[in-house]
Amino acid sequence: MLDLVVVPEKTLPAIHFISNESSSGQLKRLEGKVAIVTGGAGGIGEAIVRLFVKHGAKIVIADIDDAAGTHLANSLSSSTIFLRCDVSSEMDIQNLINFTVSRYGQVDILVNNAGILGNQTKHKSIVDFDANEFDKIMGINVRGAALGMKHAAKVMVPRRSGCIISTASVAGVMGGLGPHAYAASKHAIVGLTKNAACELGSYGIRVNCVSPFGLATSMLINAWRGCDDQGEDEAEEEVEKVEKRVRSLANLKGVTLKTEDIAQAVLYLASDESKYVSGHNLVVDGGFTTSKNCIDL
Ligand SMILES: NC(=O)c1ccc[n+]([C@@H]2O[C@H](COP(=O)([O-])OP(=O)(O)OC[C@H]3O[C@@H](n4cnc5c(N)ncnc54)[C@H](O)[C@@H]3O)[C@@H](O)[C@H]2O)c1
Prior knowledge:
- The chain has 297 residues and is of the alpha/beta class.
- It has helices at 43-54, 66-75, 90-104, 131-156, 180-200, 218-225, 232-249, 259-270, and strands at residues 3-6, 15-18, 34-38, 58-63, 80-84, 109-112, 162-167, 205-212, 281-284.
- It has a seven-stranded parallel β-sheet with strand order 5-4-3-6-7-8-9, with helices on both faces. Strands 1-2 form a two-stranded antiparallel ribbon.
- Helix 4 runs parallel beside helix 5 (180-200).
- The longest helix has 26 residues, at 131-156.
- The chain is globular.
- The structure holds nicotinamide-adenine-dinucleotide.
- Nicotinamide-adenine-dinucleotide is lined by residues 38-39, 41-45, 63-65, 85-88, 113-116, 140, 167, 169, 212, 214-215, 217-220.
- InterPro entries: NAD(P)-bd_dom_sf, SDR_fam.
- One of its GO terms (molecular function) is oxidoreductase activity.
């Protein structure tokens, strides 16, 4: 927080600022906080981890991708650790919370970000609905988030403080923006967020979610192209292709949605700036879900 101190004119010409800025001049909005980011090894989760680290948080990256998670943790501060965790497993989630508490003494922030889209091309129509695929998607996207809330709440309630943020999607705001199971899972996250916020508010714990529009992470790149491995140049081209397609679908023109933009929204919900915000779905879609076509009135 910035504190304005007016000093006498004779000693200094104007106004001097005292703040909790880092040496790079950036305000550290999560100084001293302990955060868990599921699905933090890549994509949106990675952007959240990177931004949280810049803002002084101690982080546990929880993911099933050991190589990417370990590499990311090692490339960041010494207070960033990777722990393998499949969010659909209650034992893994319990272990994640216990590990974080034993390592850092507390859990201030849980970001339930891990999620999968499912096989978009194979089971697109409701008549081809695959119940096993549905269970898998719900198991990771919804059960994973609910288990995260359960075990985080167990350690947050006694401290009467904490903050839980889940990654939903525009596919959880309106229909037609993803496969059926995925859309159902993201609507469920919005509902779960509101219900948990209702209960946990009594303990000073805030529960929110963010709903991004399309981002060129491996999730969308794979869904829009097939899944063959590519070289670095080709991968860059794929990112540009997906961003171009998202820009063409977007309502807000002249900007490209980046994972860093979602990380900024999550940072806001995790920090004290949003101290009275709970049960909220922060939609980051450039106005896409608020109207179909603008009528020129
Ligand atoms: N990319 C988009 O356009 C978009 C839009 C809206 C919402 N989202 C949501 O954002 C979140 C992150 O997606 P992303 O785009 O970064 O995808 P991504 O595929 O790039 O990253 C997902 C991460 O989750 C991890 N993960 C997958 N299953 C897991 C499990 N069972 N346990 C733990 N970790 C697991 C993966 O290893 C990966 O690191 C998801 O919940 C997704 O539904 C993405």
